[in-house]
Write a structure and sequence with these properties.
The protein has about 210 residues and is of the alpha+beta class. The chain has 2 domains: about 90 residues; about 80 residues, Roll (Nucleotide Exchange Factor Grpe, Chain A, domain 2). Helices cover about 50% and strands about 15% of the residues. The protein is built from 4 helices and 6 strands. It has a 3-stranded antiparallel beta sheet. Strand 4 and strand 5 form a beta hairpin. Helix 2 runs antiparallel to helix 3. The longest helix is centred in the middle third of the chain and has 68 residues. The radius of gyration is 48 Å and the shape is rod-shaped. The N and C termini lie far apart (about 175 Å).
Length: about 210
């Protein structure tokens, strides 16, 4: 045999296994020249990842907006409840003082508050309560309103009733009526004019028949 025949070409082999038997990791694809090749759809994968991130961001933004709206509604509800509680407490205190105001009104009607230290106390009390939101109503000549006035007597036909006599003032605190005014109701100017016109017409008819 010649020396050339005794030499054998080196044996080479290519490991085409996709999983590395030593590390257990997935191997990258190997080209024929032995170099690693990039995935064929790398660009598509990036777009899919960007879309997923955009969807996740939109969901988190919607959640944040919903939480913000719920918190704003909660704050408004708490503030409204707090204001109602404060107004209720004020109304309860003012209601207890209505009897004092009635006594002062009677003293004023008798001329006891024209001068002196009691007049100053009465004026300061009335000013303080008005500053807190207390309003009085019920004066002679005002139109009769059954939601504000309690009529205990009535005179006339009642087509245009007004307050003829105020026996006790009414009070309200904001939109809340603390006490109705106790009044006597009589005919208003329109009713009186109508009654006068009807009387005059009746007199003219009687005169024409004679």
């Amino acid at each position: 045999m010649s020396d050339g025949n005794s030499e054998q070409e080196p044996i080479t082999f290519v490991d085409n296994r996709k999983i590395d038997p030593e590390t257990g990791e997935i191997r990258e694809a190997v080209a024929d020249n032995g170099s690693a090749t990039a995935p064929a759809e790398a660009g598509d994968g990036a777009e899919v990842l960007a879309d997923a991130i955009s969807v996740e961001l939109a969901e988190r933004t919607a959640d944040l907006q919903r939480l913000t709206a719920e918190y704003a509604n909660y704050r408004r509800r708490v503030e409204r409840d707090r204001k109602v509680a404060i107004d209720t407490a004020k109304a309860a205190v003012v209601t207890e003082l209505l009897g004092v105001l009635d006594d002062l009104d009677r003293a004023r009607a008798h001329g006891d508050l024209e001068s002196g230290p009691l007049k100053g106390v009465a004026d300061k009390l009335a000013a303080a309560l008005q500053k807190q939101g207390l309003e009085e109503f019920g004066s002679e000549g005002e139109p009769f309103d059954p939601t504000l006035h309690e009529a205990v007597q009535h005179e006339g036909s009642g087509h245009d009733p007004v307050l003829g006599l105020v026996m006790r003032k009414g009070y309200r605190f904001g939109d809340r009526v603390l006490r109705h005014a106790l009044v006597g109701v009589t005919d208003g100017v329109a009713d009186l004019d109508r009654a006068a016109a009807e009387t005059e017409a009746s007199d003219d008819a009687d005169a024409n028949t004679q």
